[in-house]
Amino acid sequence: MNISGEQAVLDAHYMARALELAAKGRFSTHPNPRVGCVIVRDGQVVGEGWHVRAGEPHAEVHALRAAGANARGATAYVTLEPCSHHGRTPPCADALVDAGVARVVAAMQDPNPEVAGRGLQRLAQAGIVTHSGVMEQEARALNRGFLKRMEHGLPFVRVKLAMSLDGRTAMASGESQWITGPAARSAVQRLRAEASVVLTGADTVLADNARLTVRAEELGLDAEQTALAMSRPPLRVLIDGRLRVPLDAPFFKAGPALVATCAAVEEQYANGPECLIVPGADGQVDLRRLLSELAARGVNEVLVEAGPRLAGAFAQQGLVDEYQIFVAGKFLGSSARPLLDWPLAQMREAPQLKIIEMRAVGDDWRVIAMPLPAASV
Amino acid sequence: MNISGEQAVLDAHYMARALELAAKGRFSTHPNPRVGCVIVRDGQVVGEGWHVRAGEPHAEVHALRAAGANARGATAYVTLEPCSHHGRTPPCADALVDAGVARVVAAMQDPNPEVAGRGLQRLAQAGIVTHSGVMEQEARALNRGFLKRMEHGLPFVRVKLAMSLDGRTAMASGESQWITGPAARSAVQRLRAEASVVLTGADTVLADNARLTVRAEELGLDAEQTALAMSRPPLRVLIDGRLRVPLDAPFFKAGPALVATCAAVEEQYANGPECLIVPGADGQVDLRRLLSELAARGVNEVLVEAGPRLAGAFAQQGLVDEYQIFVAGKFLGSSARPLLDWPLAQMREAPQLKIIEMRAVGDDWRVIAMPLPAASV
User: Fold this and answer.
1) ipTM greater than 0.90, yes or no?
2) Given its phi and psi angles, is residue A256 left (phi above 0), alpha (psi -120 to 50 degrees) or beta?
3) Cα A56 versus chain centre, distance
4) What is the pLDDT of residues B94-111, one digit of tens each?
5) Potential cystine with B75: which of A359, B95, B103, B154 (Cβ 3.0-4.6 Å)?
6) What residue stretches are annotated with the CMP/dCMP-type deaminase domain (chains A, B) (predicted)?
7) A192 is in an annotated binding site
8) Which helix (H) or strand (E) holds B356?
9) What is the pLDDT of residues B41-86, one digit of tens each?
10) pTM higher than 0.80, yes or no?
């Protein structure tokens, strides 16, 4: 291996560590991205840091503080291009320059239009060697919501479903509780904690008395991560076009929530939760406008936990980025309810998905799948 | 580790090799079990063998021939207790005694009532040290069909299904071709080749012009295994209660077949395929009697490839030992056909399954699941 080959191996090694640090912010950084930083001098890690919470120091600042004078002449690995703008904290690019860092390796450019290459540019202008694109795919995966919001003005939408092995979500009668076991429920708790918004529909809230909260004891996380998750619970959003859910429902009693509805009837919710009026053409809530509004409020990731009708509407409108389907080892039979309310007549209309993984979660299994664009069918 | 601990490690090591050899007979030994044998002297493998085909020498005979005089004082590892009876070949127990083998390790006793411990007994009486139960679970897995037939008088029944991620097998119109891709189809070819019988229903044969044959070029096996598979294709069994499938259907033109039907109407099949009359109480073919009859003819493994109705009937009657479900990355939607025709009203009626594995097969995924007995629900 030549020297540049060896450097590439080392760069990937330290970036992997920076990504590991960044992931510690999984439950707490939003609306900011998850970012980690490692500072290396003479083959030694001299400082590490990760962004914990919006308004608090960025990953680079933590790492530079830990490194102190050792940052001089060192290489800084950051999972996202250092910022160049004055937000709630001063620009990290300046801090790296001031610390005398010799080289900065970024996993990816920051798509935030306030940065977008200017961070690396400022470093280069100060004589620092810069390099971007190391483990970019992994870095992008960690901040899919932030990236989608910056690049498309929409949050990343993950739809969680629970079904039997024959693709059914409930009996015809609606009976459905406890299809999956405790390990799957704990995984769903972590999905909720990761999300900026947990979104549901009136059917689910009325039928199951669902609250869609995060419960510390079910997260299955260590104390630090549990505390971070509980310090920043996701906003619960209820889609209820006709305001059918009464204010004394457990959903509303469980904490703050936002209601997306169609008509200007929120006077019946006087002193109740905030309402967002987003009527669609078909008398239903306009889901795309709702998502766009949520993105404008800084929402990176939305977890949809809804019945076949609402989940089917998101699917049909092409608004889903990822499905996480928990599969229980049972058959509910041919008269049970479908996975998604989405009638199709011909095979060529059938939406294509890429199944990313299937993995055991306790006695159940989790399938992760991504819709493929219609063009690739 | 003490000496007996080391011996256990070595025993498992050589038995694993014997199982690997046994598996080479996967496509050809039926109605006999798959058996492998390794002969070891002074830490050297001096002979190996596996049973290829009924009527041909057993694994032990091949291995003893290869070992020659080196078998004296050696240990023989066999994946199934050596036989003690005169079948189409002389008893292997006698051959091992004659060769002067000092120790025989078997993975499991032979459940064949003609053997059932008597093989090991004969060896012990001749002064040979015998040991049984090494890697028994793996050995049983390799011969599940043979064991089920010996122990229960029924074949092992594997149901192959192909579905979309939302659990559907075809559009409401019946449109269904090519749900899954070439790698999944090749895996199905290997399932057919392994089976003693491929069983289907009139619906499938009429709707899809299905032939259910094994095609050498789609097996994806090496030349030796392909030749073995093609030399012993599975018997194709058609369940056709009312003899709806005409004799000029591609199914019948593709080779010998057996028809299971209800009424004594086989005169319309004069000069046609063999018919088996197994009427059930409900005007349908009695599936359990059919399976029992197949077992009596030496059928170890049945692969069911049928539509939701017939597959659902096997499922409802508790006749399924394993499901292999090929899952395509698409949604067919809520009006498409179910996985199994099996209407259930209440969750407590829902049959439980243990999902054994989910694994990628090309662009599709394969789910292997086993029904759990109702008692464990």
Assistant:
1) no
2) beta
3) 20
4) 888 888 899 999 999 888
5) B103
6) 9-131
7) yes
8) strand B353-361
9) 998 999 999 999 988 889 888 988 988 899 899 999 999 998 877 7
10) yes
